Amino acid sequence: MTMTPASPSTPHTEYGGPLSSTMIFLLPALALSSKVGLGIVQLMILLLLIRRGRTLLPLYQRHWNDIGGVVLAFGGYFLVSLARLVLDQQRLNTLDGPSRLLFGLSCIGVVYYLRPRARHFWLGLCFAAVLSAVVALFQVTVLGMERAIGFTHHEITFGDLALACGLMSLCGLTDLRNTRMAWLPGVGLVCGLLASMLSASRGGWLALPLVMIPVARYGVQLYGRRLLVVGAALLVLVVLALAVPATGVAGRIEQALAEIQRYLTLGDATTSVGIRLELWKASVMMFLEHPWLGVGRDQFDVALHALAAQGRLQQSPALLYSSSHNDMLNCLATGGLLDFSLLILMYVAPLRFFSRQLRSVDRGQRPLALAGMVVVVAFIGFGLTDVMFWLMMPKVFYVMMVCSLVGMCLAAQYPAPVPRRILIARTDNIGDVVLTLPLAGYLKQLYPQAEIVFLCRRYAAAVVAQCRHVDRVLTQEELGDDWADGLARSGCDTMIFTFPMRTLAAAARRAGIERRIGSSHRIHHWYHCNRLATFSRANSPLHEAQLNFKLLLPLGVDVEPPLEQLKTMYGLNTPRHPAADALLAGPGFKLILHPKSNGNGREWPLQHYTALAGLLRGVEGVRVLVTGSAAEGELLAQQAPALLALPNVENLCGRLDLDGFTALIGGCDGLIASGTGPLHLASALGRPALGLFPPLKPIDIVRWGALGPRARSLCTPVACGHCEDAARCTCMLAITPQQVLEVVESWRAEALVPA
């Protein structure tokens, strides 16, 4: 029963639930909107790391060869800051920024564990870039602001982060290629550039040629001609920006050149560029006097005024600043070679990680690694004219983006641990249970070393026990009063809720089952399950047995088995039972009629069953066996006494337990019923079976039709128009006893043909 595209040897990319993808989608937009939003996301990630520490912390040790440099870079900066706080007796709040860099490392483990979809990350970047452009246009054109500041209250920060989002969104060209959003990365890039231009942040423009180096180096391999098209469009956009005076780009460049000239010739430190050059000059002086540890991280302005007091700096607006307006110079001035080396390490370690990922066999991590390289190189460029690691928002943005991309690269590079014990939960009716058995068979093929456990109600356990694909049957009743404890004792690491049940999902969460897979269409699954599959059962054109396979999507398995293949995947054996053997031992063609459905589906009228049994009186050797529960037998005695009174009819209602009933079905020559459990059981056992259905979604043939190698289904070709109202619907009545008789006669003819 080999099935494509999945096979046991195929590595699968496992995905987390919508919450993890929502988090990674919102991260760029939150970075551009407020420090509070970004801080909340970082706090949530940190709390999740603490809560799942026993699971997540070993990940850092397991992948230390890959991420050790990144951890040492950001963690080392915090440790050095802590040491300086103690030795220099600094205020505790000086650890605020360094601690954010340390906490940002939690993104690696949490993102690797949650495994958000990369597509949501690309969409989030594009959304953030477009949002920044819209806000910038509104602020400049409607509010009349000279420079767009977004929600950051800082023009340079806003322009640089918007540009970073636009540049990174370009790396999603491959992942969004075959979707309706294939055009978004290009739009995101344009919008990021537009927001940067409207913020008039010239430092961001210096980053563009630097970013083009890794994009040109690796992008051609990933994107081919599409990158050339985007590059050409980018070049046109830059030319237009320079040519159109309204953009202010050419004017800002000319102004910068003029200000450099004024500083060099006249020593003018009152202009924007002149102030920066004066600060850079002061930073070099501070470094030369304190090369190893600098003047102190919070002592820049003190040292600046000291230099001015000594007459080494002129009195200018530069004395109002508290940083160098250059990351590297600021580190050299305030922290000496020690802080400078830490800054370089925070650049080099991620670059080394991402370059290795780009050179590795592509398992989906290369576009993510290129985005990581882009954000690092962009921040190097931004840091030439601003202090990105001195300001809180860009600092947090950098560490969270870098570490999130590291986590996503690892998730793509290293498949999730193979499930060891998979629990399939189907705690409703027998028919539903039977139609879930092919899923057990496929999982057994996919993970041959895994143990397949099936959770059902006790009354259905006898059927599941006959399935060759199920290693152990666990009943809901066996869980005891504390379901969480019972599930924990099962030792399962993966649980699939093919039937949504809130209390059971809550128990699975409390039991600590590692993977809990459910439908996103159930609100409670968003809290209790950590792997969600998004699909609709009610509006789907798929059969119920096929729909169960949609729950494998979070495991990275996208398979839709054809119905013909599913017919052979039940793996059910026919049990032996003394009472059933005695009934089957007699001569004749043994036909089971199962008139009732316990309220499931739409039933064929009892008068039609009576008429069919009457027609079969004239067919030699046909034994009509009427089955059902004891309660259903009482209903039949009241509602269809004529049926039970026919001489060729044997009333077996309530006479067999489920083992005996299964054995009877497995040995019969045919079964007729509406869409109910015995119909699906007969189909699965390979017996001739006929299902009778109304043309009404979601209880029609498409969703619940008989599915077996010798199974058939009947339905009226045209709906009566009143199917929603069972009292007025005539569709089941329109299926005539004569039509059903013809099917029975075809079965009988097949039985008479010598093997």
TrEMBL record:
Give the record's membrane topology.
Multi-pass membrane protein
Please report the stretch or stretches of sequence annotated as the O-antigen ligase-related domain: 188-338
Q: Which UniProt keywords apply?
A: Glycosyltransferase, Membrane, Transferase, Transmembrane, Transmembrane helix
InterPro entries in UniProt: Glyco_trans_9, LPS_LOS_Heptosyltrfase, O-antigen_ligase-rel_domated
What organism, scientifically named, is this protein from? Duganella vulcania
**Where, per UniProt, does this protein localize?**
Membrane
Cellular component GO terms held in the UniProt record = cytosol; membrane
Q: Name the chain's protein.
A: Glycosyl transferase family 9
SUPFAM superfamilies in UniProt: UDP-Glycosyltransferase/glycogen phosphorylase
GO-annotated molecular function = ADP-heptose-lipopolysaccharide heptosyltransferase activity
Keyword Transferase annotated: yes
Instruction: Extract the PANTHER family matched here.
Output: TETRAACYLDISACCHARIDE 4'-KINASE-RELATED
Supply the Gene3D superfamilies for this chain: Glycogen Phosphorylase B
Respond yes or no to whether keyword Repeat is given for this record.
no
Gene Ontology biological process terms from the UniProt entry: lipopolysaccharide core region biosynthetic process
Check the record and name the Pfam families matching this protein. Glyco_transf_9 (PF01075), Wzy_C (PF04932)
Membrane-crossing ranges are 23-49, 70-87, 99-114, 121-144, 156-174, 181-198, 204-220, 227-246, 327-348, 368-391
